[in-house]
Amino acid sequence: MDATAIRRALAAAAVAAAAPLASAESGAAPCELPGSGAEPLADRAGLLAQYERVPHACLQAVFTTCNAASSRALLDFGSAATCSIAYEALLSQRFNGDFRELMAWWRTQQPQAGR
Question: What are the pLDDT digits (tens) for 45-55?
Fold first, then answer.
């Protein structure tokens, strides 16, 4: 999977996660990932701050998409950086920095086959 395809998959995951969120919250706009097309590490702190304002449902979708993509192929630098920043934002925003809590959630997201 090339860099463009991975970024499209990340954006699609965020939009797909936003659909139930938008319908649950009247007037809520679909999720959009910040910094699309920008160099992800040019202003890492600023980009992380933007990601921390993305709804956690979108960040969770990005996290699971990144996990699936990275299990199939080596991510390019930009995609890996984007995944890393989204992970950090999710860890901070949704799990208050508790890595074990994030891992417990992530385990619930894994397919049941092979367990």
Answer: 888 889 999 99
> Where exactly are the structural domains of the chain?
3-108
Burial zone of 24 (CB within 10 Å; 0-12 exposed, 13-18 middle, 19+ buried): exposed
pLDDT in tens, 98-115: 999 999 998 888 775 444
Q: CB–CB of 91/66 below 8 Å?
A: no
